[in-house]
Amino acid sequence: xxxxxxxxxxxxxxxxxxxxxxxxxxxxxxxxxxxxxxxxxxxxxxxxxxxxxxxxxxxxxxxxxxxxxxxxxxxxxxxxxxxxxxxxxxxxxxxxxxxxxxxxxxxxxxxxxxxxxxxxxxxxxxxxxxxxxxxxxxxxxxxxxxxxxxxxxxxxxxxxxxxxxxx
Length: 167
Hints:
four-stranded mixed beta sheet, 4% helix, 1 helix, single chain, mainly beta, four-stranded antiparallel beta sheet, globular, Immunoglobulin-like
């Protein structure tokens, strides 16, 4: 039986913990090097929850130019316990079995693979993309911008009432 309690009534059931895009020059054979982690915060059924990739296309002729795709869908039913962390790789489970990434061998995470067969693996995450966690009803639960760790995010303007940085 699905869990039809309102998603935010007692707090979010799950959230995006982090996203790790592959380093520049990575080939699709090594797509398991990039992943998204989803942390479960409440014991619940995540049946048909999805992870989506959203990319702005920045075309002037289109009012809201956006490209999106479903990357991974949790099965039905999918009973998860609080504290579980799911690492959803862009690559395939076959590639993971043949060439495991060192971090995959660390305990404490459940691994899922968006790529399916070996040839289905591809690199998904680029700088400026958004990763969305969407529940079974289409509600966006969490959204994170992809920003490679090797690059510093753009500086933000100081908040109103705070002193300007010294020059």
